Amino acid sequence: MQTLFYAIGGPNADEKTFDETIILFDAKFERKPNLLCERSLFSVMRQQKEESFAQSDLRLREKADVCEFGDADRVDRVILDQLVPNLCNLELKYKILETEDLSLETALAEAQLIETLRTQVPHMGGKQQTVDKHDAPNSVNVFRAPSVRMHREDVRLLT
Questions:
Q1: What is the pLDDT at residue 136?
Q2: What's the confidence (pLDDT) of residue 19?
Q3: What's the pLDDT score for residue 124?
Q4: Which of 91, 97, 132, 140 has the fewest CB atoms below 10 angstroms from its CB?
Q5: Angle between helix 104-120 and helix 53-67 axes, rounded to 10 deg
């Protein structure tokens, strides 16, 4: 143990206080992440089925901190490059890929808007009808308000 103490403490090991020695030992035996392994784990991260774009961003950002990708701009680019191809929501993926000069900030704003609308629109009422594939190039969902039927008496009151 004494040999280790002098090896870590250097030539002036006897002059170090107990607290300084503990700091040296902690630094020596601290587990350092293997960057190759951490970056490999980062590269296989995917958006979970019930996870929002922002939640995926947060999970990737936490892992990116360990991966030491560089400055904030580089980290944002790496996260965006990982997020977009692995999105679960195809509508969101298409919308983001249509955007020129895409930044992570812009993608987050688009994602928040689309994800919010996706949860709010069905609660607005009306029937959801699917357009026939033959009528449109892609099958899309169309929301229509229920039709209003007026009786003859109601029409006379309006005139």
A1: 45
A2: 81
A3: 81
A4: 132
A5: 150
Rg (CA), the chain: 29
In terms of Cβ atoms closer than 10 Å to its own Cβ (0-12, 13-18, 19+), residue 57 is buried
Given a contact cutoff of 8 angstroms between Cβ atoms, the answer to whether 112 and 54 are in contact is yes
Residue 86: what pLDDT?
93
d(CA 39, CA 1): 36
Q: Report the pLDDT value the prediction gives residue 142, as an integer from 0 to 100.
A: 45
The residues that bridge with 141 in the sheet, in sequence order, are 130
Q: Which residues of 69-90 are buried (b: 16+ CB within 10 A; e: fewer)?
A: beeeeebbebbbebbbeebebe
β-pair partners for 128: 143
The sign one gets for the Cα dihedral 148, 153, 156, 158 is negative
**Token pair recorded at residue 52:** 């929002």
Q: Give average pLDDT by consecutive 10-residue segment, the chain, 159 residues.
A: 63 71 76 90 94 95 94 95 92 90 93 90 70 48 46 50
C-alpha closest to that of 88 among 59, 123, 46, 118: 46
Give the CA distances from residue 132 to residues 89, 123, 144, in Å, rounded to whole numbers and listed in that order. 22, 23, 15
Structure-token pair, residue 78: 């790496």
